[in-house]
Design goal:
Blueprint: H1 4-18, H2 27-33, H3 44-62, H4 70-78, H5 81-97, H6 104-113, H7 115-135
Helix pairs in contact: 3-4, 3-5
Length: 136
Amino acid sequence: MKIGIPMLAGPAFGSCIFKRMDVQAPEGLADQFSNIHNREHPGFGITLIAVLMPVLLIGAFSAVFGEDTILNDWIAFIGKPIIAFMVSVVVSFFTLGYARGFNKVELNQFRAACPAPTASIILIIGAGGAFENELG
């Protein structure tokens, strides 16, 4: 019960203050979200495959048994985390990029802009793992 009041206070305050505020969007913001590019959005299946591909490749690496065959060698190579992520990025560039009509310049802009927001998440996760090993 003690935590319920602060949890309800935030949304209640937000709904009250929203009626009293008049905020104008920056000029360039509306252009970003308009439908300038009428491209077809990727389907759920291809998006799910693009997201789960590194997990599946790394999972296949853990299923490699002790037999020394060419297939196991390939699975062991592709299932290494850095290779699995690289394969997933290349596949997503083609399935979510070129197949949807993006050109090389637009994909390069996405590639340059995306690591900045995700880097802080990866840093926090890595720091949490380091602190767990240090303290525990």
